[in-house]
Amino acid sequence: MTTKDAGDIRWIQRFEHFEKAFAELKLAVAVDEPSRLERAGLIQFYEMSFELAWKVMKDYLDAEGYDIQSPRAAIKQAFQSGVIEDGETWLNALKDRNLTVHTYDESTAKEIERRIRRAYFPNLAKLYTTLQARITP
To answer: In the predicted model, what is the mean pLDDT of residues 39-57?
Structure first.
């Protein structure tokens, strides 16, 4: 097995973890009027999904020969490589992920929930579809 083959396997394994977290986020997003607890769960599933999303991008790009060291670098290179379409929204998602990890108040949670539903979840869904298509030709 070549290094490239090992990298291919790594990103596919990471994708499987992303797929599971994304499925949970999808269920949470389906709740139209979440309670405070459900909103917290939605945000937690978003944090997990986002974390795995940038890591699967990193692993995919590593397999393609890039050396990626950070979420920001993964997003920028994924955009340049055509893995994702909306780099600016992904960078905003990174900022919000960092915000949700360190602070929690109800008004911030509601605003983050709105952005997850309108922008971040659709981008995660596009990434899921794009990478799934690259696994199954």
So the answer is: 96
Tokens 């929930």 found at: 113
Distance (Å) of CA 50 to CA 21, 25, 119, 120: 9, 10, 13, 9
The predicted-structure confidence for 79-114, as pLDDT tens digits, reads as follows 999 999 999 999 999 999 888 877 678 888 899 999
What the chain holds in terms of domains, given with CATH numbers, is 3-135 (1.20.120.330)
Q: Is the Cβ–Cβ distance between 44 and 64 less than 8 Å?
A: no
Q: What is the largest CA-CA distance in the chain?
A: 51
103 CB-side CA count, 13 A: 12
The DSSP 8-state label assigned to residue 69 in this structure reads -
Helices 36-63, 3-29: crossing angle, 10 deg rounding: 160
